[in-house]
Amino acid sequence: MTGGKRVLLIIGGGIAAYKSLDLIRRLRERGVKVKVVMTAAAQQFITPLAAGALTAEKVYTDLFDREAEQDVGHIRLARDTGLIIVAPATADLMAKMAQGLAGDLASTVLLATNRPVLVAPAMNPAMWAHPATQRNVATLKTDGIAFIGPESGEMAESGEAGLGRMAEPLAIAERALELLEAGSALPARPLAGKHVVITSGPTHEPIDPVRYIANRSSGKQGHAIAAAAAEAGARVTLISGPVTLPDPAGVTVIPVETAKEMLAAVEAALPADVAIMAAAVADWRVAQEGSEKIKKDGSGQPPALALVENPDILSTVGHLAGNRPKLVVGFAAETQNLIANAQGKLQRKAADWIVANDVSPSTGVMGGDANTVRIVTHDGIEDWPTLGKTEVARRLVARIAAALETAEG
User: Fold this and answer.
1) 3-class SS of residue 210
2) Regions of the chain where pLDDT drops below 70
3) Which of 205, 221, 252, 300 has the fewest Cβ atoms nearer than 10 Å?
């Protein structure tokens, strides 16, 4: 590779373009040489003069620039770099990338490059959540494009907030350095071509129209695993109980409420290469859901609620005959006898692995951002240190990818 510590920064047309000026500064502080391509829309927010002053380089704006194109300049820009960063990456620019359009300098460079590409999306939350945008994100990830962000927060528009803010320039610069140090290879995608089905969150089992049986699961761990699996190249189906988390990018999300609905969704999502049953499914539901709100009758006695056992989703998947995933991973959330209970679950439910964690109130795991897990398999027990749930997810996905590779020879 001839690019070395060189970056081509493509600035898209969004209000977050002003952050790209700071990104240039952050990259140059780290010894990275930066060239800039600006779309026509980007020039409505910042000027080529500002970008050029920070890079000390010519800023490229026109596909048909006579001087720049004397030596097929768009091909030179596409190749003479170690990394291309698109920041901000608007919905329009990502759509062009996903469809292979090449109507201006930015999209033509992106179609002509053989270098790694890092995309930092920035747009209104409704635009980010739109199915068309999510399809494009999934396509780009399948093509090997690396993503950073978006993040949640206030938007430029008054009263607008949510998932859509561009990642901070410092974070983008650090990720860029990681990719530059990795050389010209695209980010590893060890689960490319695999289908992973994941359950996440709690289930809500109705008692009457206003009450339900539930638990304290936030879904953070299951959603983090879904995001990590998508980053690793998998086609991910995430079946989620009621949570307040944003849908992970590039993931097909199927919302459900009850255990019975979750089981039906899992069965409909199969076949799959891997099933990761991370949801905290309610063990019981009421035998007869009340059609009206249950009222106190003045006796001081609570109403009698008959409970019946819910279907066991992990056991159902583990014991499948012809449609069983190659790897079935369950979770054991326990407050006592962690390993013994996890080993019992491994055997009873015909799982391949159990991810065991202590969810006693003192641990803060339920609803928190960190987790301490042990991987229980038929070969033994692996103790992991306390990690953020995102890092737990990445390590688990890496371990799954390695296991599949070993099994497939």
Assistant:
1) coil
2) 1-4, 66-74, 183-188, 409
3) 300
Q: Any bridge partners for residue 35, and if so which?
A: 8
Q: Measure the CA angle with vertex 261, ends 260 and 263; round to 5°.
A: 65
The residues that are catalytic are: 215
Interval 143-171: pLDDT, tens: 888 888 888 777 777 777 788 889 899 98
CA–CA dist 58, 203 (Å, integer): 56
Phi and psi at 257, nearest 5°, equal -120, -45
* CATH level 3 topology of 6-181: Rossmann fold (3.40.50)
Is the pTM here over 0.70, yes or no?
no
Q: Where in the chain is the domain with CATH 3.40.50.1950?
A: 6-181
Contact predicate 86/63, CB 8 Å: no
Cβ atoms of 285 and 212 within 8 Å: the answer is no
Give 31-53 pLDDT, tens digit per residue: 999 999 999 999 999 999 999 99
* Assigned CATH for 195-407: 3.40.50.10300
- Residue 252's nearest CA partner among 330, 152, 138, 136 is 138
